[in-house]
Amino acid sequence: MAEQQQHASNSGAYLIRGAAILGGAAEDLLIRDGIIAARGPHLDADGVGVGDATVIEAAGLVALPGMVDIHTHLREPGREDAETVETGTRAAALGGYTAVHAMANSTPVADTAGVVEQVLTLGRAAGWVDVRPVGAVTVGLAGEQLAELGAMADSRARVRVFSDDGICVHDPVLMRRALEYVKAFDGVVAQHAQEPRLTAGAQMNEGEVSAVLGLAGWPAVAEESIIARDVLLAQHVGSRLHVCHVSTAGSVEIIRWAKSRGVNVTAEVTPHHLWLTDELARSYDPVYKVNPPLRTDADVQALRAALADGTIDVVGTDHAPHPSEHKECEWAQAAMGMTGLETALSVVQHTMIETGLMGWADFARVTSTAPAGIGRLQDQGRPLEAGEPANVILVDPAARWTVDPSKMATMGRNSPFAGRELPGRVVATFFKGHPTVLDGTLNTPYRWPDDAADAPAVRS
Fold this sequence. Notes:
The N terminus is likely disordered. Helix 1 packs across helix 2, helix 4 packs across helix 6 and helix 6 packs parallel to helix 7. The protein is built from 10 helices and 20 strands. The chain is α/β, with parallel strands linked by helices. It holds the Pfam family DHOase.
């Protein structure tokens, strides 16, 4: 791969020359004024007005729609010791993302119109990706009364995804009411499926390894029982349900059954659950402590198969940065969570593409098109065609790199892939036609126009 830029002008026009579109035939893409102005072979010889464009030589690179993360923890406001919107979105751009959904478990909780609008403003001030706030389902994530769902939906942030992620909405009556409420504006409840009474004091997956290590086990049924309940509630109400970070083979079967019955349910899997297993807990290294826990190899294989066949719809990073002192301690006291924005593409390439389970077109579906649809994002996950928004990434699939958390843009150093060699490298990220990443490094952020105070567009 060689990326060569001809800085002929500062026109905001870019000619991406010779990229494999979704891993297929090599073509050119002309980006101008925030959209894909043209697509085809040899555009500079076809008289389509590319003379003033900066040329990016993309032979050997794969062009994909910008990735969309349905599940990101940016921590701000209130937990700036772990991450900020600025640092988290820098990491997202470097990882190939052009939009992220910021989870609600900030301090204060994003359970009012005021807080979600604050997160939206912070995201636009940063300018690296489109930050879409997720609203809390319940006030303070306490699971006792519904938050201001309608006010958040009608706010400038136009919230369409609601979640108490990190805590399960365990009360079935409250969950039913939430599903009924969001149906009015085509919202979705994203559930952290975990029956709290089955996981009190749990430290890792319940199984052979937990028994050997003497750590309190986290049974698969704690996840599966909530999913089973919630798909029935969603069917009864006729509303949209999204299941966060599916981790067990049994959960896959429940979701598959629900979809066969026509239930409007979608599901996500994290990159780490596509690869890592509970065997890593034998090291007692808290970097491998996560919620839900790493499961068995049989679960990993079931999750991969489900992502490939569409039972699981999307990859969501569950990017969860923590200060070092919250991870560099004994296992029982360590925080749960892993970073993921800057490694997700490579991990999915390793686990799904290099294994032959999917190709790059499928990769675009599970990392861009489908998550944009779940979040009802109008200008994300779009085809790489003329007239479409220019949210585009260029990937070098032949590149290899070794994960060094100290060199990442995220403030979190808790990557479970530290020291591992991974395939694939994001060479360029175009957000609204602006290159936030060039040659694998941060370029400059997108600057929102003065009229961007208007509500972001969502799909009806």
